[in-house]
Amino acid sequence: MPKSTLLPPIRVVSVDDSAFAREGLRAILKLDRAIQVVGEADSRARAIAEVHRTKPDVVIMDMRLPDGTGSDACRDILSAFPRMRILFFSAYSDDHDLYDAVMAGGHGYLTKDVGAKDLSRAIKTIAAGRSLLGPKETAHILSWVKLAITNTPAIHPPTLSPIDLKLLSMLAVGASNKAIATAFEQPTTAITKLLSTLYRKLRVRRRAQAARYFIAQLSPHHDPRDVNTLSTRGKG
């Protein structure tokens, strides 16, 4: 008898302080045989304990918890399990929450108004090692990038050149080295050297860290469309 080629289901832990929300999520994901909910938690503390107990593939994380934030829980989990995948699933999509989720190391962010198929697809994308943002969150990120490009002196240290800025803006939207090379009209080997120099300037090792640095120059506490709210941490 031939061996089954079916892959094991993606093991998921759901973290949400609302029992109703957790029950609804469980019912939705039960419809997809490729996903299995193996644990639930209603707080930051219980989330960490449940992840330790079940060792899931993906944690679906609410942003607002009674004993902290989803970002706090994300940091705790990734500190103990660096390879764990975190998908933020929140009723909110403001700049502050999105910024916190990105800086905490989250791998995806969706709002709770997405459809069941979109949620299942997102979980599979995150489990496969890729990152994902919903349409609203992508729009937020792009607005930050556009604002940064038009307000370079306000958000970047003087040591960063216009070329560095363009590189960072392309990294922030996930551009590959090939895409960057096309935009710069340079061979990919030249782009690799430019990126290496940029990483040394920023004292980072990976493109994801450079992209997060770029985003972090904008204050999450204010409207990103207001140039007067930009952080000046890069100065001085």
Q: Care to describe what's here?
A:
By secondary structure, the chain is an alpha/beta fold. The protein folds into 2 domains: 10-133, Response regulator (Rossmann fold, 3-Layer(aba) Sandwich), CATH 3.40.50; 139-229, Orthogonal Bundle (Arc Repressor Mutant, subunit A), CATH 1.10.10. The chain is built from 11 helices and 8 strands. The protein has helices at residues 19-29, 44-54, 70-80, 95-104, 116-127, 135-150, 152-155, 162-172, 177-184, 188-202, 207-216; strands at residues 10-15, 35-41, 58-61, 64-65, 68-69, 85-90, 108-111, 132-133. The strands form 2 sheets. It has a 6-stranded parallel beta sheet, sandwiched between helices.
Number of domains: 2
CATH superfamily of the largest domain: Response regulator
**Name given to the CATH architecture of the largest domain:** 3-Layer(aba) Sandwich
Query: Strand order across the biggest sheet?
Result: 2-1-3-6-7-8
The CATH topology of the largest domain comes to Rossmann fold
> What is the gyration radius calculated from CA atoms?
19 Å
Number of strands: 8
Major beta sheet, specifics?
A: 6 strands, parallel
Query: What is the averaged pLDDT score?
Result: 80
Low-confidence stretches: 151-156, 218-236
The number of distinct helices, counting runs of at least 4 residues, comes to 11
Approximate strand percentage: 5-15%
How far do the termini sit from each other?
Answer: 70 Å
Percent of residues in helical segments? 40-55%
Task: Please state the structural category.
Answer: alpha/beta
Q: SSE string, helix = H, strand = E?
A: EHEHEEEHEHEHEHHHHHH
CATH class call of the largest domain: Alpha Beta
Shape: elongated
